[in-house]
Amino acid sequence: MKNADLENTLQSRIEEAQQTGDKFGLFFLDLDMFKEVNDTLGHSWGDELLQAVSQRLHECLDSKGLITRFGGDEFVVVSDTLNDTGAGELAGKLTDCFQDAFELSGENVRITLSVGISLYPKDGDNAGDLLKNADLAMYDAKAKGRNRYEFFSQSLASQLQEQRTLAAQLHESLNNNEFELVYQPQFDLTSGRIAACEALLRWRPTREVFSVSPGVFIPVAERTDLILHIGRWVMEQACRQVKAWRELGIKIRVDINVSGRELVEPGYFAGLDDCRARYGLEPQDIGIELTENILIKAGSEALEELKKQREKGVEISVDDFGVGYSSLSYLKHFPVSHLKIDRTFLKDAPESAYDGALMEAIVNVGHKLDLFIVAEGVETEEQSRYCQDLKVEYAQGFLYAKPMPARELEKLLMSTN
Ligand SMILES: [Mg+2]
After folding, report:
1. How far is the CA of 198 from the centre of ligand 1 (A)?
2. Which of 4, 18, 281, 350 could form a disulfide with 285 if both were Cys (CB 3.0 to 4.6 A apart)?
């Protein structure tokens, strides 16, 4: 059935429902990672798989609705009369029936399904809206981890609309130079001097009064290639700044935060090598920060690239340590030099025996693995003393300095170091 036919069928289903007062669901089905499976199997297998999928969907649906192949690996199901709970049940049944492997020419292939649901009449009274909204819900199911179903809602629609607007603004801002790097110093707890600084991204769109928090725009950028463009801008800017400071007689390492997308992007580290070289910098001049979640998910190729950087002398920090998998045993597999303990530990550590015990354990294991420890979020004298007692090497936090523009850090470096 062609898509135009689907729209016609949907339209008559709607007219019928208008007469009877029935409710029904439109289910937008998309195979998870079909492209990857197709690439590994070869295209003739891909077709075989799609046929097997179609057959299984028919069996699963058991004539309780109408199935249409919508696009490459997309299917649309228009259900018979349903209420809200019935729609969830049916979607659950559809995803469940993909838990068993498909047997293709003697080979077992596993593939799962993401499903988005729109309900007539709640989510649309015409074919176009029902399809569009089920499609949005399907993307939501993908974003939430695949192999699941999600319902359309108005809040989902406005959320997605906001994200699209934000993504468009980010694009524009990259061209208009509306980003800025600020620098937060890390202090050596023994000497009291500034040892390095972390480059943090700020976004001040000229059309907005306030800057937009990285917590808001980074996740949006990470969903698209935007994060790669922004990452390149950060890298370039950090290298340029280190060189500018060097020309003023200031030598300081700047650490940049690297996202999961960048880590797996082919050529990312070659780009970093190239950027350093263009500004005449050494590997020691630009450090890298990666969260432990990114490290744990990193494949062997990415880890190999990181290892090469480490061997050249690049300082690599595990960022926000303690809030993710927090697996101390994993640490020895990562080519890292610094462990940045997440601020949540220090927040209560001096008083809370529990957080204190965790903090001590992390510091001890870190030291046994020859890692430098950086305490994040040091805000009080008491926390600072506590870190010094634990022999933590470096501290970053408001007690010492907030993130600041390059000019301000320059003054601070001139007066303290
Ligand atoms: Mg960081």
Report:
1. 7
2. 281
Question: For the chain, first and last CA: distance in Å?
Answer: 73
> Tokens 């300082």 belong to which residue?
315
Residue type, 417: N
Please provide the DSSP assignment of 176-210 as one string.
Answer: HT-EEEEEEEEEETTT-SEEEEEEEEEE--TTSSS
Place of tokens 């199901």: 77
For ligand 1, a single-atom ion, the residues with CB < 5 A are 257, 289, 319
Measured in residues, the chain has a length of 417
Report the separation in Å between the CA atom of 165 and the middle of ligand 1, taken as the mean of its atom positions: 26
Does the structure show a pLDDT above 90 at 185?
yes
Give the Cα separation of 155 and 136 in Å (integer).
11
Domains and CATH numbers, the chain: 3-152 (3.30.70.270), 164-416 (3.20.20.450)
Q: Output the CA 96–ligand 1 centroid distance in Å.
A: 40
Q: Taking a C-beta distance cutoff of 8 angstroms, is the pair 189, 202 a contact?
A: no
Burial of 36 from C-beta contacts in 10 A (0-12 / 13-18 / 19+): exposed
Confidence of residue 243 (pLDDT cuts 50, 70, 90): very high
Residues 6+ apart with CB under 8 A from 145: none
At 243, which amino acid appears? Answer: K
Residue range 368-397, pLDDT digits in tens: 999 999 999 999 999 999 999 999 999 999
Angle between helices 268-278 and 300-312 (to 10 degrees): 20
What confidence tens digit (pLDDT) does each residue in 306-360 have? Answer: 999 999 999 999 999 987 666 777 788 899 999 999 998 888 887 888 888 889 9
List 287's β-bridge partners, or say none: 255
Encode pLDDT of 55-108 as tens digits.
999 999 988 889 999 888 999 999 988 877 899 999 999 999 999 999 887 788
**What does the alpha-carbon distance between residue 57 and residue 55 come to, in Å, rounded to a whole number?**
5
Token code pair at residue 73: 């690996």
Classify residue 364 as exposed, middle or buried by CB count within 10 Å of its CB (0-12, 13-18, 19+): middle
Residue 217: what are its φ and ψ, rounded to 5°? -90, -25
Distance 205 CA to ligand 1 centre (A): 23
Task: Answer yes or no: are the C-beta atoms of 242 and 286 closer than 8 Å.
Answer: yes
Separation of 100 CA from ligand 1 center, angstroms? Answer: 42
Residue showing tokens 């990470």: 222
Taking 70 as the threshold, does the pLDDT of residue 1 lie above it? no
pLDDT at 44: 75
